[in-house]
From TrEMBL:
<feature type="domain" description="Response regulatory">
    <location>
        <begin position="4"/>
        <end position="120"/>
    </location>
</feature>
<feature type="domain" description="HTH luxR-type">
    <location>
        <begin position="150"/>
        <end position="215"/>
    </location>
</feature>
<keyword id="KW-0804">Transcription</keyword>
<keyword id="KW-0238">DNA-binding</keyword>
<protein>
    <submittedName>
        <fullName>Response regulator transcription factor</fullName>
    </submittedName>
</protein>
<dbReference type="InterPro" id="IPR011006">
    <property type="entry name" value="CheY-like_superfamily"/>
</dbReference>
<dbReference type="GO" id="GO:0000160">
    <property type="term" value="P:phosphorelay signal transduction system"/>
</dbReference>
<feature type="modified residue" description="4-aspartylphosphate">
    <location>
        <position position="55"/>
    </location>
</feature>
<dbReference type="InterPro" id="IPR000792">
    <property type="entry name" value="Tscrpt_reg_LuxR_C"/>
</dbReference>
<dbReference type="InterPro" id="IPR039420">
    <property type="entry name" value="WalR-like"/>
</dbReference>
<keyword id="KW-0805">Transcription regulation</keyword>
<dbReference type="InterPro" id="IPR058245">
    <property type="entry name" value="NreC/VraR/RcsB-like_REC"/>
</dbReference>
<dbReference type="GO" id="GO:0003677">
    <property type="term" value="F:DNA binding"/>
</dbReference>
<dbReference type="InterPro" id="IPR001789">
    <property type="entry name" value="Sig_transdc_resp-reg_receiver"/>
</dbReference>
<dbReference type="GO" id="GO:0006355">
    <property type="term" value="P:regulation of DNA-templated transcription"/>
</dbReference>
<dbReference type="Pfam" id="PF00196">
    <property type="entry name" value="GerE"/>
</dbReference>
<keyword id="KW-0597">Phosphoprotein</keyword>
Length: 235
């Protein structure tokens, strides 16, 4: 099955580099390019790609505004935001909007390819260099209180579902969660599906955001036993 991809970046050389990397994969096809958010909206409406690789800073309509529109209007097209280290605020807002992943522009080619495949398969992915640093930064910013009151929503989860959510937010993959809780991977996936349904979330990435906003996981805490593969990768 071929994964169709749209590239959105205002720099032609960046788009050319992304296309060169992805076009070398037999199961990935770049079906279009756009240089700003407005072009991206039109292009996605026409091509209905599986994945959209979206830059943040662009003229006319930036990537964050375009990502919000795409998530709402074209849920079948998963958005991966291409970010840099100085865009934490953009990443935080896009996380809440429901994008499926984040990748640093300096990431190696193999990580870009893996991100496209992971997101197209229904998973989520945060670059390991962005993951906990970004979520911790926006979930409990000084002077802004503790964020939305998620107490009642958190209470709707069973003890096992809460355990799974905590470990997901702490950086563990499905395989690692299963090992930690002595469960099968299929059972872990079932618990995660129920977590998303009960909390009204659309992605694993949003589940991580919820875990921080609810106080289930605090900045600086880790679940332990994770690797550097990224918070939200589905094996």
């Amino acid at each position: 099955m071929t994964v169709s991809v749209v590239l959105v970046d205002d720099e032609a050389m960046v788009r050319a580099g992304l296309r060169m990397v992805l076009s070398g994969e037999p199961d990935i096809e770049v079906v279009g390019e756009a240089s700003d958010g407005l072009e991206a909206l039109d292009l996605v409406a026409r091509t209905r790609p599986d994945v959209v690789l979206m830059d943040v800073r662009m003229p006319r309509m930036d990537g964050l505004a375009a990502a919000r529109r795409l998530v709402a209007e074209h849920p079948g097209s998963k958005v991966v935001v291409l970010t840099t280290f100085d865009e934490d605020e953009h990443v935080a807002a896009a996380l809440r909007a429901g994008v499926s992943g984040f990748l640093l522009k300096v990431s190696p080619p193999e990580q870009l390819v893996e991100a496209v495949r992971t997101v197209a398969a229904g998973g989520g992915l945060l670059d390991p260099a962005v993951t906990l640093r970004v979520i911790a930064a926006f979930a409990h910013r000084p002077g802004e209180g503790d964020g939305p009151d998620r107490t009642a929503e958190l209470a709707s989860l069973t003890g096992r579902e809460t355990d799974v959510l905590r470990l997901l937010a702490g950086g563990l993959t499905n395989t690692q969660i299963a090992a930690r809780l002595y469960l099968g991977e299929a059972t872990v996936k079932t618990h995660l599906s129920r977590v998303l349904m009960k909390l009204g979330l659309t992605s694993r990435v949003q589940a991580v955001v919820f875990a921080y906003e609810s106080g289930l996981v605090r900045p600086g805490e880790t679940a332990g036993g994770g690797d550097d593969s990224g918070v939200c990768r589905t094996p």
